[in-house]
Amino acid sequence: MLVFAEEPTPRLRYVVHHVFERMLGWPIAWAGSMEEFRSSKGPKLYYGISELKDSFRVPESGRLKGKGSSCSSENAIGSGAELRITMVDVEHDLFASIFHLLSLTDEINATERDAHDRVPATSLLLLKHKAEHLPVIDLWVLQLAKDLRSRFPELPLPDRKFKHVLTVDVDNGLKYAGRPLHRALGATAKDLLQRPGSVAQRWKVRSGAEADPYANLPERLARVRGRVDRAIAFFLLRGNGEFDHAADAAHPVFRELIASTMEQAEVGLHPSYHSSMEQGMEAAELAQLKEVLKAPVILSRQHFLRWKLPETLRRKVDLGITEEHTLGFTDRVGFRVGTCTPFPWYDMERDEETPLMLWPFQVMDSAVHEQMGVPMDQAAAQFTTMMNAVRSVDGTFVSVWHDRYLSGHEQFTGWPEVMEEVVEAARK
């Protein structure tokens, strides 16, 4: 398909290439002049103010010109699937609306922060317009494809396929093993008061007489390996902070766990709580994981989903990370930027597309159970609801689990079965 715009800015080119080539699988070419565009006989799209004969038009608002922060959302209208962010009188500038969401404008411009210095979901435009439970960008684009195919029947059907990417945040790695002696003694004293039955198990594990109850992740992943499109485990390697509780990465049992997990899934880094704020921390953790794996590491998801934009993402580009999986909600299910299609991060300050692909997730076990208060026996329904929303647009369903949940140990009994139920539902 041929595309023409009077001013094909980098932002416009980014959106158009993503919409047609990544989301629909349709190759495009840019017309170098109005004369070339008018003389073309095939499918063609014009991004402009007024109609052109024999072409399909997307109204232009002018919002994709210039640099710095993306367009304002002050004139956004509608809710749910009827949301329209950038209007030109009564017309919808589809490309500007898509750029507003994909450029993370709301994340960058938000002034509110939660207790962990994250942008709260309630600050986002999609929440304010009751659209967070829908992949609105994918819905917009599929409607665009339908309209284009009505105008140009020779265009193919969109080339999309539903996929399930199962991901695990390995926050602990091990429950009892791989902990300094002083921490084990302190935990034992606490257990004597609160959970006396676990004291014996802790010391049996530490002596090597019993397997660590969290060390069963490779077996959990092996059970579903052939039933998901991808499986990824993100390992936290820091354990000396208030919010970082990983086992010692130098401990042989933990190193064996990481190696065994690598046989069942792709392995990525789970950068520690302060890594997005403290220079050099993520680079050190990445080097440590590479040393354990004896292999490159190109996948990442921030611990506690904490990041600082654009610095955190620029650092990942510099470190050779090519996939970033932080984009999602900590306290609910849904679509944080309105899409279930991975997309390249666009650095607005530098006004350029980067090689870093952002993979949004839609649902996380701890958000469902701990934040939303959904009982375990009802949790699969929350996953399935989001899965069906993704399936309706043939998108990429990304589920997030934690090693403590998948251990099935103590209060997490039954959660491995929930995960398997979700995996089976995604195959239907």
Folded structure, characterized:
There is one protein chain. The protein has 428 residues and is an alpha/beta fold. It has two domains: 2-151, no CATH class; 163-175 and 212-427, Glycoside hydrolase/deacetylase (TIM Barrel). 37% of the residues lie in helices and 14% in strands. It has 16 helices and 15 strands. It has helices at 10-23, 34-39, 94-102, 105-109, 125-128, 136-151, 181-194, 198-207, 217-224, 252-262, 281-293, 311-319, 365-371, 376-391, 403-407, 415-427; strands at 2-5, 29-30, 44-48, 56-59, 87-88, 91-92, 163-170, 230-235, 266-269, 299-300, 323-324, 343-347, 352-358, 363-364, 396-402. A five-stranded parallel beta sheet has the order 9-8-7-15-14. Strands 2-1-3-4 form a four-stranded parallel beta sheet, with no helix packed on it. The protein has a four-stranded mixed beta sheet with strand order 10-11-13-12. Helix 1 packs across helix 3, helix 9 packs parallel to helix 10 and helix 14 (376-391) runs parallel beside helix 16 (415-427). The longest helix has 16 residues, at 136-151. The two termini are 34 Å apart.
What's this, in brief?
With 428 residues, the protein is of the alpha/beta class. The protein is built from 16 helices and 15 strands.
Rough outline: elongated
**Number of strand segments:** 15
Report the CATH topology name of the largest domain: TIM Barrel
Strand order of the largest sheet: 9-8-7-15-14
Low-pLDDT runs of 5+ residues are none
Strand content: 5-15%
Radius of gyration of CA atoms, rounded to a whole number: 24 Å
What portion of residues is helical? 25-40%
CATH first level of the largest domain: which class? Alpha Beta
Quote the average pLDDT.
Answer: 93
CATH architecture of the largest domain: Alpha-Beta Barrel
Tally of separate helices:
16
Q: Give the termini distance in whole angstroms.
A: 34 Å
Q: What structural class do helix, strand and pairing data support?
A: alpha/beta
Please indicate the count of domains: 2
Q: Give the biggest beta sheet.
A: 5 strands, parallel
| CATH homologous superfamily classification of the largest domain | Glycoside hydrolase/deacetylase
